[in-house]
Amino acid sequence: MKSSTLNYRTNTSNKISSINSTINNLSTLTDLDLISETNKNSIIAKQESIKSQELNLEKQSFNLENSKKLLAETIKTYELSIVSKENDISSKKTNLEILKLNLEDLLE
Questions:
Q1: Which band of pLDDT confidence, cut at 50, 70 and 90, is reported for residue 101?
Q2: What pLDDT does 79 receive?
Q3: Alpha helical stretches, state H, the chain
Q4: Cα dihedral across residues 90, 92, 94, 96: positive or negative
Q5: Mean pLDDT across the stretch 26-40?
């Protein structure tokens, strides 16, 4: 009887160890699946972030090009304005010289 009780306890202990081992293995597998899913989600999030950053970079490049064009147009406008004002000053100087000559003629 002692022998059969001992065998029963040994068999029961072995079965409990086997069940615990199976539970631990299942727990590990589930964790690996979760880790795999988390990694997949992380990769997708990173890919979306990269796409978003690329789009943002394209927008900024477009804005930069537009700003360069606007700057070039503004510089040209100011240069033309300066030339026009210089021509106006030259014309007024010429008119002043003519007026001085006319005044001298009148005074003579």
A1: very high
A2: 96
A3: 2-107
A4: negative
A5: 66
Which token pair is 22? 């199976």
Total-model pTM:
0.51
Per-residue pLDDT at 38: 73
Q: How far apart are the first and last CA of the chain?
A: 157
- Distance separating alpha carbons of residues 26 and 43, to the nearest angstrom: 25
Residue 78 and residue 75: Cα distance in Å, rounded? 5
Could you identify the residue written with the tokens 């972030």?
49
Q: For 77, which DSSP code?
A: H
Q: What is the largest CA-CA distance in the chain?
A: 157
